[in-house]
């Protein structure tokens, strides 16, 4: 290797080390086989959709926990809390590949096709909330969320079918479920044709020719099939260029659509119309092959392109196969799992449509797997039922990921489908006419059973550990030789591989922040992760700790020891230095003893954290030891005898000393700390008290000779008595009292709540002029100062005021009663005096007092109160009233009509001023009523109202006024007497109607407002369509029929159209013919005319029998329910042919000829457009179709033996008549051909290239040969020219090809060519000069790793060659 090249390879290797941490990381999938939460169902019927689907309506980013979604389709269960869902970006590749881009499309690192599982925490409206954040981003409106059932077991019986809801452009196309137990499948799990949609056929009315455009406008270009480039599918996306895995459509004139792609590329559509457009190779291009791993991507099969045409006989392209995703413990049964593409639509004379590509099937089982077959085949291209019009290309094969414990017994079939055919075998390229097959898919098989790998451990950093290394090594144990995924703070930072002993070590690629972190690990095997290990929390700490002395001795103490508490960060240790000594390790707390010297001491302490960092600024504390005690003096205290229950003392020391505190001992209770001054409370016991007090200085030295003081507490209060006092009620303005108590006591008085003051015994109070109650309290105070707590009390009243009188109640001011009763009130104990009307004097009266025999007219009462002292109210209370005994007269002023349909009635009354009214309806008791008064809720009958007035005095009219009326609210009934027929072809309509006598009518046509009308009523000029007439009666009382009579009829003057849906073949030997008819108008009948006969009624379908041998013509016309007849009957002509064809003539091989091929061409003539059956040596070996001139040819599909052979032939015409076999056999001989053909490579890569795809074209000197190819020394396998190899690795490759002739002779010297794939022609690594430097533009070190591997491989190869 040259030095310069070696340097570049070495640089690439170093770049791998520098950039490896940027490699894309696989999705963590730790859901295993699911939870079994959906039980063990049995599927025994067809059409069961297990999954629910919804489009994702807004972009999703890593870390999102909410998924906004659109309408749910598929299974109606939709989504609920606890569900497992798959998030899948189904389409939306960016950037969109250019139309017509050839070669495979690598989406390994693309967002399209990416999926992940998530668990639903809750559902709110149109949003899902997840239990954990998403790993990846997903684009809006091209991604979907899929509910994934989790079964224990799933049984599909022989009649059971699980199907996918077909992809609709935003959701669907997927079958996905998990099972912790067994999936037993005797039926089908079927996602056939559930994938990307085929292009739709659009008829081209221009009949243009010569089109070639990759994006030819519609309808000169047919619609492309759908693929992962969603923006390039639809009515405006036409032309032969494929876009990603979506196939191209045909172009004018009548070329075929391409097949969709998936693992295998789709086949190309057939040529253009050979009769008018030169049979050009312009068929739709096949959809591209997609490259990716099914461990983390899934795609639908690409849709086939539509064929182009102008005869309205085309069909849409085949849909691609869907996705099937199954993970379970075991698979049993003889059922099938299918995700094949749909076939391209065939046509009579337009270009055929391409087949859809096979879908994607993901099957992973922990145990064994058995089934009949797993198929993801391409759909067959559409066939054209005429000659030299382009058939559809075949769909590419799909992809399968299959894993089982023993490899499984399922047959994995991923065939690229054959193209369609046209009917002219002599056309260019034969019946495929340039249309090609789709490429096969290749399954990926994992030979060990599916497992969720065990959870690894993290041993370093240990939980709750500290480190000063920003990049600590991550170490632990895991299953041997597995990938270990490292998570720091919940985010993946890289991967390591455990060794054969099951240990791993991982160096962090970047510095960690100085903070607390968590580390977890998970093992990954085939893209499935274990659960994460428990989180170890560790702290990266580069900061020295700070030290605090939390507690220590007082700054002045008499203790000869000192204890300290220190503080710092968690896990720190400490080092101490006392009085300048060297730092040594010390505990927390730490005690220093033997401090006997009376002096100042200084301690310094510094922390050392768990990472070994030492505080550079130690904490310091200084204190003094003092051991000399103080002497105590009591400066002041309470009197020696007192009634106070508290005592306050002042203390001092003999020699003044700052900071002295005191301890007190009251009555021998023990010394405790006390203040200066100190107050003792709660001294409630009457006795002598003794206090001792001793001083304590700031060093803690205590006076050994406490000071002492004794005093007595006396707390017994005296009792007080009022000996004499004034009367309880008096008009005296002074009062004298006598008191008594224990000897020597004095007194304190409080009058009316005033403060207690000293008073004499006796004591007189004067000036009591206020008329009120007075209260005196008096208490004794003994010699010791104790005061009677319950003073003696006395209350008396001084009253000098005359009473006031009130009339509380009496008769109304106007009354018809000749008696009157009054209630009076005044002060308590008062009596009353009354005077009525013109009496001259007051006389005693009671309370209450009643006056009787009062006459009509006004009356007056005066009343005065007399209090208990004899004082009489000088201002009597006065009351006047009038007695009225004459009744009023009553009149009804207005009321309802005598006949009404109103359920309420309002009346107006009149009488004398001030009168009120009482009413009686239908003999009920009279009750108060208003003026006016309304009665509601009246039923249908006659009513009588009586009303009487009551005047203000209460007199009632003895002759009430009366009024009678009738309520009638029964609505009339309306009846239609006559109406037009239904349906009717007349634009005019007349109606007649009736109801009860005296009723009038209101009419409405077609929902218009009701208006008055009379019967009969007519309407003219009505348009086609449905009409509704309504009529309602209104009776004399104004009641309206609430249910109008209604009649709906249809005016139909439009004639129907007639179509013949099916009939006999255009040429047949059947003497009967059955036809199906239809009309766009429902409810029609049909009339037929055969061969010019008169029209007569016929059925649908209708069969005609006894037909003779000739051309027949059928006319059929529809007659609708209104009697309208189609004026342009549908026409169909066909020929009954009962004459068998003549025996064919065998032209080649010539009689007794010798041929040197085992598959000689046998040809001849027969009736044009008939089918010839070829019989060799008495065995029917195949058929051939004659052309319009009667020529036919046939090549045996099974090689003939050497020697003599006999050929016979028999023709069957288009009508199905079988003719006789040729009378004389054609005899020929097959001789041995021992000459091997020669092989040449016509084109392909040479030298060095950066392309990972290689296409070779090759040929032979002998016609009719087949080819076998070998790449890089693998065994030869059949191939066709051109052949394409994709996904080539870096380095040297060798291609060899050999021809095999019809006799089985093989070229012994295959043609060969070698070339080298070198990524430096256009890769991601840029070498920076001749030095060691690099940059990666792709964001992924995988290419660099690939380069390094290739470098090592080439180095070994070059050494071997040298």
TrEMBL record:
Keyword annotations from UniProtKB, A to Z: Signal
The UniProt record lists the keyword Phosphoprotein: no
Domain of life, source organism: Bacteria
Transmembrane domains' residue ranges: none
Descriptive protein name: Ig-like protein group 3
KW NADP (keyword) present: no
Pfam families hit by this protein: Big_13
Ig-like domain residues: 545-681
Species, as recorded: Archangium gephyra
Signal peptide start and end residues: 1-26
InterPro entries: AgmC-like_N, Big_13, FN3_dom, Ig-like_dom, Ig-like_fold
